[in-house]
Write a structure and sequence with these properties.
Elements lengths: L20 H21 L11 H8 L3 H13 L3 E4 L3 E4 L15 H25 L2 H17 L3 H17 L4 H10 L2 H10 L8 H19 L3 H20 L6
Antiparallel strand pairs: 1-2
Helix pairs in contact: 1-3, 3-6, 4-6, 4-8, 4-9, 4-10, 5-6, 5-9, 6-7, 6-8, 9-10
Length: 251
């Protein structure tokens, strides 16, 4: 079997490359996973240039639309950087020392969310008690940024991560901040890629729900209500976990 991706056709609305949108997203997700695998194995090292768009089209048998979507997702994950006229280059894999380098399976991502639920719920509770006015303002700015650019796949991961990092910083405990920072934007990106192709950040209903969940965390911290802040953080992360463990997305 060659390296070409399996095309799945469905009688829904067509994407620009002739595939339905769900199938196109699925192919982009699969291409992302293939390229990530090469990065993790060292076949594509930091500083290496990705194969050109035309090379990827020929190698994997997909359209330019699919390739561009895959590159956009890799950019959003902080795995590559694209320069006009020069191509896309592999960055340092942002899993750092956290063990995210080994997070590959569906179960790994669910366990990562279990871990985050415990850590981030407590961090939010501490933030409600210990935050300074300056830290509260930083959380508010991160929330505003996410509202503004949350439907832009190439920027929404960083905006989402920034909100969680600011909440951790407001806990007043440097270990929460260092831990969340060590996980990096991949802690946001990994659940998204596992939810594909059914999940799409640009989906208005989902975006509205995530913004509301962030607002609930922020509001509880503003009120200095640690129990409500813990609960809001737990609900936010548990909702993602539920989608991952529902029958539709199970392995």
């Amino acid at each position: 079997m060659d390296g070409r991706l399996l095309r799945v056709r469905h009688p829904m609305s067509a994407a620009p490359d002739g595939l339905d949108r769900g199938a196109a997203r699925g192919l982009a997700h699969e291409l992302v996973e293939r390229l990530k695998g090469r990065m993790l194995s060292g076949e594509l090292a930091p500083g290496d240039r990705l194969p050109t768009e035309s090379t990827l089209v020929a190698e994997f048998g997909v359209s330019r639309t699919v390739v561009r979507e895959a590159i956009s997702r890799l950019q959003a994950a902080g795995l590559v950087e694209t320069f006009q006229g020069r191509g896309s280059f592999v960055l340092e894999v942002p899993e750092r020392a956290s063990g995210l380098r080994e997070v590959r399976s569906h179960r790994d991502v669910v366990e990562l969310l279990d871990f985050r639920i415990g850590v981030e719920s407590e961090a939010a509770g501490l933030a409600a008690v210990r935050r300074t006015d300056h830290q509260l303002k930083a959380i508010e700015r991160a929330l505003d940024d996410f509202r503004r650019i949350g439907d832009d796949p190439s920027r929404s991961v960083e905006a989402d991560f920034a909100f969680h990092l600011k909440v951790a910083a407001a806990s007043g405990n440097r270990f929460y901040t260092e831990l969340i920072d060590s996980l990096g934007p991949m802690m946001i990106m990994l659940p998204r890629t596992r939810l594909d192709p059914a999940y799409e950040m640009s989906d208005a209903t989902h975006l509205t729900r995530v913004v509301l969940e962030h607002e609930n965390i922020y509001a509880a911290i503003t009120r200095s209500d640690p129990d409500a802040a813990r609960a809001a953080a737990r609900v936010h992360l548990s909702n993602t976990r539920h989608r991952l463990t529902s029958e539709r997305y199970s392995d």
